Amino acid sequence: ASTDVTNSSVVTGTTVTDALNTLNNSVQEVLLSAIKNAGSVTANTTIPTWTTVSKDTLSNFTASTGVFLVSVAGDYEVEFQAATTTGTPLAQVYKNGTLVQTGIGSGVRTSVDTVIPNCIVGDTITVALDSSLTLTSTNTDTVLNISKLSGASSSIVNARYHSSATAITAALTTMTYS
Question: What DSSP designation does 153 have?
Fold first, then answer.
């Protein structure tokens, strides 16, 4: 059972090298996962003081300022959701201080999921809300994930082999993935 797989892709290839190359060219590597507890935010201003950073693969996120610094050129996906105690906020994603995308608000929740293409080393990515509001206290209500979609990356391969015709022994056995 693969219940612990959170980001898997079907890869093809006649050899393991081919499959790894296919995977590496299509990998979506999660670089950052952060959450924020309650706090006030100022309209159209980067959300600072992220409470918990559970993953920062490249050590490029400054939780106290809310700034993600691009250190590897490529295309990035930004997923941001927030919940406030009142109002109907709109989520915003910025690249180098310029608004890239605005999300949709519904009630006191809002989210945005966008791709920022052609980032270069030194670019910054931040998120904000369009209104001055107070975030809810539940730490899973305000979440930021940044993933790398292209460019140089690292990969983890999870492969599964199933066959009734080949016995796997203690000796090295060649397995052909189809």
Answer: -
